[in-house]
Amino acid sequence: MNKEKDRIPLTDEDRDSMLKECRSAYSRRTDQFTRLLQQSKELTGKLRRNFEGMVELLNDVIAQADPAMGGHAKRGAALARRVAYAMRLNPDRRRLVFYAASLHDLSLIGSPKEWQRGEGDAWTSHPARSAEMIASVENLSRLAAVVGAHHECWDGSGFPEGSAGEAIPLESRIVAAVVAYDRKILTGGSSPEDVVSELESGGTCDTAVLKVLRKIIHTSSERRKRGDRLLTLDELAPGMLLADDLLLQSGLVLFPRETILDEETLTRIRSFGKMLPEEGLIRIFSR
Ligand SMILES: [Fe+2]
Ligand SMILES: [Fe+2]
Known about the structure:
Distance between the termini: 82 Å
Bound molecules: fe (ii) ion
Largest sheet: 2 strands, antiparallel
Strand order of the largest sheet: 1-4
């Protein structure tokens, strides 16, 4: 009580100066927080780009060891990313789909060809083995789960778990449909549209994913009809679509056809400069 009495009342100037001090301390803290947030965003972006670079590098290694498998992984990854985008998955899930399609057959690298054709116990265990390899890296459990389920089928006839329908992660259903499509296209004989129809009647793939895949294939064939253009590195711009696999002079697929160019892919393409064939001319689809 006495303490209350002893208190010296504040003047208006005192209050003003205290308020000013508070405001400037608040503003300093806000600036500090904004800077930290910006730094953390930049670091997250750097880490993401590093990881993407490592996935691309791994894909290049796969392509060197086994060009057919490398091509399958790269085409699958580019197409799976387009399907994920068309299905309006958020950027995080789109990246997950891209990484999973890139690395889905990781455990088959260097394996006997009969395994890769889908024969034997080693074939049925390859999704789990690929998932195990990925899960050995910290923080990749989600990616491992998507890869581990890339041979599960919508009708429950897949492996290793025999899961069905929506019990299979959507990311795995996208990868499954796209890589099944790519495998069938590689065996030749059928048109892209017929391959999708075959998959639809087979009942093993999610029809919602196949519907989107059909639309993308249709758009691509329309683009092909409209022709394409050869552009120099300087003429390339974000949003353009590769009309051919972009190969290095060594024959390595840098990016598969129908990759959508963005700032990151453009930076990577330009970094290869003289290693690109045809004096750096790139074939892109006309709009
Ligand atoms: Fe595959
Ligand atoms: Fe596979």
